[in-house]
Design a protein that fits this description.
The chain is about 45% helix and about 15% strand. By secondary structure, the chain is of the alpha+beta class. It has a domain of about 220 residues: BirA Bifunctional Protein, domain 2 (2-Layer Sandwich), CATH 3.30.930.30. The chain has a five-stranded antiparallel beta sheet with strand order 1-5-7-6-4, with helices on both faces. Strand 2 and strand 3 form a beta hairpin. The protein is globular.
Length: about 325
Amino acid sequence: MAIYYATTKPISRSGGRSATASAAYRAGAEIIDERTGLKHDYSKRDGVEMSYAFDKSMKKIDRSELWNKAELAENRKDGRTAREWVLAIPHELVPKDKDKRKDLKQNEGARVAVRFAKVLAERYNVGVDVAIHSPDKEGDNRNWHAHIMTTTRELERTEDGIKLGDKASIELSNAKRKELGLGSTSTEIKELRKEWETIVNTQLEKQGIEERIDHRSLKEQGIERQPTIKMGWQASAMERRGIDTDKGDLNRDIKADNEQLHDLRLEITILKDAKAEMANIKEQVQGMQDFKAEYEAYKQEQHQQKLELHGQQHTLEKVEDKGFER
């Protein structure tokens, strides 16, 4: 069984995050946030195989324009500026050849992620930004994954460029969705998780690969996670001699079941990414604060100099007045 992992969460200012910083980090690009003036430069980061930003017609979108528009469209301090999907890509679909991995036409792992992004763009009429990441050098070398960011508002193309309008239906409250005759957001997300399963399994079958992914939880599949048991020196010695033992057989069964928990390692990778992103933002914010403090000190110095100059002029005027009176 190939590893299934597909999760989504909003990118919100209340969490100290921004769409511009997130997009720059995931795509390994440089974006200047027009709202804050912060420069997010991740152009030298490793691990990004390829990235694409496009609309429902697969027409390319300028990444900086897209996410700056997303930031400027929200006025609330806790506004949701983007939604992110993180998907585990079966390593069986990723070419071993480095050059082929960077070619969308030859990398089926990347192609399934782009297909899913296109589903999101078409269903919600939003802009999407796909980044394909290679495994963490310190982790599992099968841990290929995709980050897909979507705008929270519907996208429209105008003569002046792209324009973001009303909130996409998936971003609406459940009360509002009910008024529109739509199901709950959680139900919709579950359907999208099933869509990812279908896209991947269709490609696995097409490639003649027996592995499949399953969007259901381990509990729904009837699989319970179990820790491996302690072998003991006698059983370990027998296993090393090639003799199967009851304890060894049990541990092999447990490991086979727990293979599906590979998504935990992927979650660690995502948390590392988020930590690095937040550290960069904090550094830039601190830089802005330092600059502001220096500028305020400069203004105070200039003000003090003006006061001193004014005092000197006032004293001189008094001296001149006394001379005139004489």
